[in-house]
Amino acid sequence: MGKAYLSIENLGVTFGHGAGASEVLRGVELQVDKGEFVSIIGHSGCGKSTLLNVVAGLVPASTGAVILDREAVSAPGPERAVVFQNHSLLPWLSVRENVQLAVDKVFGGKKSAAERREWTLHNLELVKMTHAKDKRPSEISGGMKQRVGIARALAMQPKVLLLDEPFGALDALTRAHLQDSVMEIQATLNNTVLMVTHDVDEAVLLSDRIVMMTNGPRATIGQVRPVDLARPRDRLAVAENGSYVHARAAVIEFLYTRRAA
Amino acid sequence: MTYPKPDFAEAAPVAVPAGASPPATASAAQAAPAAPKGPGAAGLARQAKAVAAAVLPPALTVLVILAVWQGVCGDSYDGLPSPSRIWLESKELIVDPFYDRGGVDKGLFWHVLTSLKRVALGFSISAVCGIGLGVLIGANRWAHRGLDPIFQVLRTVPPLAWLPISLAAFHEANPSALFVIFVTSIWPIIINTAVGVRNIPEDYRNVARVLRLSPIEYFFKILLPATTPYIFTGLRIGVGMSWLAIVASEMLLGGVGVGFFIWDQYNASRISDIVVALAWVGLTGFALDRIVALLGRIVSRGNAAS
Ligand SMILES: Nc1ncnc2c1ncn2[C@@H]1O[C@H](COP(=O)(O)OP(=O)(O)OP(=O)(O)O)[C@@H](O)[C@H]1O
Ligand SMILES: [Mg+2]
């Protein structure tokens, strides 16, 4: 039948009841293959986070369904790890303990304590945060916190990694560094990734496909644009590439001229 | 969410600097161990300066107050005794807090100790119950709706108003005193804990949900650490209030304790002794406050900032 790994089918989300009800999403259809990197882009408030949260299981779908690896999503779980916009590390735990908490919970019965410690450090290594493993979140920079958040999510070995504007609060330079890190990690681990972003360049650089959402209320997917660029991608070399320029132009065109779809 | 903070600013103004001071004091504490690393003499000099800056101004203030007091009261033998007369009349009480001639004729240390034991017991019970109830009304909407209005009413009842009821219920001085401490100190603990629980960031809850933490894991790994600063604000207000309550209720209950001592000396017209006892009460209350604040800082280290 060849069904996609992650499948969002006729998804609708309505918050509230009766007169106060607001329909945020309607008829969202999206298929994501295993190992694919898909970005969701759209204007502020259109419902991108809501869409991601439904996939995460944090927000219930009002209509339709999300199916991951042939199972319907009904509740949050570690196989759909989320990197939240504001890192959401627990401030009373050190960097290592933050990741360890997830590792212990997810692999509690499957790995020995030593293996779990090893796995925690391995994931911190992956995001280049081993040097600060004993620091508390308040003692590290915003970019480092976001790295730790990514390490925590990766450590759960999720089937799909959900990123909600993971770099939104960072300066351009830090942002570029983290984007490179994410590309590197994705090249090694071949994760399936769904990422919400505001940034057109980020979307084009990182994604295999870009999902463009119409404005709310009742937002839905307006257009899907594949990005035909070989990996690994180098941000400098790629900027001159025709596919990159075209994809970028298409996204901008969608966002700024066809906003009221 | 209309009730929380302003209430406590009124109930105990001490609590407001309490919330604000930990970061400052914490950084001072971090700076202190760093000092000896530098050139020894300079570091020492700097520390001495810091100590002097903290100790000298209050010491000077005390001296000025004593001098004014002495000047106003002079050597007259009625009314408020002057500092020099207090020294003459209550010298034994001041220099030897540890004497014990049996009965109630003991040094102030023993009286304060008795009161402190009562506070320790009553306050422990109210801390446990208060945190438990606070978590309940913070986490459960219906518990909040049902209990919060009642708590808001009960917490305005003055401690001593509970005493007759308490005596009627328990018939004995000691459990009555414990009950008064309990009922005085539990409200700020409940209300602050509840506010803390309601203020747990949505993000932490989402992390817990993604990890599928069980309710018990959630309680110990997320809720309790996230709420610790609030709990300690409540505990700090609570311990101060229970110290107020115990001294007052002992005056009425009799038997032992520093409150009783004050009343006893009043009946014996030994005003000098009362002044000495007041100094003890004040210093002990201050120490209690600082101890709870310190505990809070140790327990929630690194917790306040995110
Ligand atoms: N729990 C909720 N209850 C009611 N309305 C909600 C809820 N969550 C989101 N909304 C509404 O749904 C709409 C979409 O919100 P969402 O956070 O998904 O937007 P977004 O595209 O992620 O925006 P941004 O780019 O600013 O993050 C908004 O109008 C918001 O007010
Ligand atoms: Mg959003």
UniProtKB/TrEMBL annotation, chain A:
Record flagged with keyword Nucleotide-binding: yes
Domain ABC transporter: 6-240
Lineage, top ranks: Bacteria, Pseudomonadati, Pseudomonadota, Alphaproteobacteria, Caulobacterales
Official protein name in the record: ABC transporter ATP-binding protein
Subcellular location: Cell membrane
PROSITE patterns: ABC_TRANSPORTER_1, ABC_TRANSPORTER_2
Predominant location: membrane
Domain of life: Bacteria
Originating organism: Caulobacter hibisci
Membrane topology field: Peripheral membrane protein
Gene3D superfamilies listed in its UniProt record: P-loop containing nucleotide triphosphate hydrolases (3.40.50.300)
TrEMBL record, chain B:
InterPro entries per record: MetI-like, MetI-like_sf, NtrB
Domain of life: Bacteria
Keywords: Cell inner membrane, Cell membrane, Ion transport, Membrane, Transmembrane, Transmembrane helix, Transport
Name of a matching Pfam family: BPD_transp_1
Membrane-related topology note: Multi-pass membrane protein
Transmembrane segments: 50-72, 119-138, 150-170, 176-197, 218-237, 243-263, 275-299
Sequence ranges assigned to domain ABC transmembrane type-1 in this UniProt record: 112-296
Cellular localisation: Cell inner membrane; Cell membrane
Gene3D superfamilies cross-referenced by the UniProt entry: MetI-like
NCBIfam families hit by this protein: ntrB
Family matches, as PANTHER family: ALKANE SULFONATE ABC TRANSPORTER-RELATED, MEMBRANE SUBUNIT (PTHR30151), NITRATE IMPORT PERMEASE PROTEIN NRTB (PTHR30151:SF7)
Similarity-based family: Belongs to the binding-protein-dependent transport system permease family.
Identification of the protein by name: Nitrate ABC transporter permease
Organism: Caulobacter hibisci
